[in-house]
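[Discussion] Sanity-checking designs against the backbone

I'm trying to build intuition for which residues belong where. Below is a structure token string of 308 positions. I'd appreciate it if someone posts a full sequence so I can compare it with mine line by line.
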């Protein structure tokens, strides 16, 4: 009985070692490298790196969504096969077991891409990894700032919109005031406008900013809108507005200094007024001098008559 039990233990142990040998993975880590975003019309390179630990490579397959469009089979001739997928153009000459090149990419292929790597016998292990590719169509023009006046007073509301037209996906917009990001409560977000034919999208971000003395530096405010799409597109537009009647004064008492900043328009008006006032003063002085001379002459004439 003891001998039979020992034989059974030996038999089960042997079976376990055989199963373990058959189930040990010979395929190491699989890593995929896909551009986060790429401009429409360019070529995209998708990388699939893997480690084979003992066994040979059997195949590498690429999928868009759940649909296969590329296959590399190591032991077949030709080793590369492609399958039709709308919008995907594989550059076969530049593709191999570890990378594929997609020519002239279009926004329609944006989405999930997967690489499936299979090892050959005896393990036949398979690993699949995925990543996202976004194909971007840049805006046709730089962003614009709409309906802004040249002059504002402290206490006014600066109300305007920034628009980035016609892109896929829509641009992300951001306001900056005097090189500092605007507070979020001053931004007004509008729904994205989608062109029904081209599917391009327009972003609009409003601004409603209550103006204070701190917004004007030497009578001027810098307003900037920045449009971004992922990390491959960034454009900005800058406008300057001036304070209507800027005054920056320091008390001249106790050795202080007096400063006055005025707009060019006010400076021109004050300059003209100063010239008129100056001319008026000269005329008044001349009139007084003439009256004095006339009085002196009259006095001498009267004095002469008395002594005669």
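Best answer:
Here's mine. Compare freely.
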């Amino acid at each position: 009985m003891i001998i039979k039990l020992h034989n059974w233990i030996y038999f089960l142990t042997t079976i376990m070692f055989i199963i373990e040998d058959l189930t040990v993975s010979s395929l190491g880590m699989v890593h995929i490298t896909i551009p986060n975003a790429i401009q429409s019309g360019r070529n995209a390179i998708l990388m699939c790196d893997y480690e084979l630990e003992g066994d040979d490579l059997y195949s590498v397959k690429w999928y868009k969504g759940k649909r296969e469009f590329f296959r590399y089979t190591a032991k077949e001739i030709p080793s590369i096969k492609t399958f039709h997928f709308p919008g995907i153009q594989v550059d076969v000459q530049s593709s191999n077991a570890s990378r594929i090149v997609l020519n002239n990419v279009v926004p329609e292929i944006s989405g999930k891409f997967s690489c499936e790597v299979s090892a050959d016998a005896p393990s036949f292990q398979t690993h699949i990894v995925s990543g996202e590719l976004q194909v971007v169509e840049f805006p046709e023009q730089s962003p614009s700032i709409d309906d802004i006046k040249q002059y504002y007073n402290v206490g006014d509301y600066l109300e305007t919109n920034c628009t980035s037209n016609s892109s896929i996906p829509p641009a992300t917009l951001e306001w900056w005031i005097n090189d500092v990001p605007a507070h979020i409560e001053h931004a007004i977000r509008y729904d994205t406008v989608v062109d029904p034919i081209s599917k391009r999208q327009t972003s609009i971000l409003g601004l409603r900013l209550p103006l204070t003395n701190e917004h004007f530096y030497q009578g001027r405010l810098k307003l900037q809108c920045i449009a971004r799409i992922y990390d491959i597109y960034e454009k900005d537009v800058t406008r300057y507005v001036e304070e209507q009647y800027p005054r920056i004064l320091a008390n001249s008492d106790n050795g202080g200094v007096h400063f006055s900043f005025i707009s060019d328009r006010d400076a021109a008006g004050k300059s003209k007024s100063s010239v008129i006032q100056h001319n008026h003063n000269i005329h008044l002085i001349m009139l007084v001098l003439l009256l004095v001379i006339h009085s002196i002459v009259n006095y001498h004439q009267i004095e002469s008559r008395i002594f005669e």
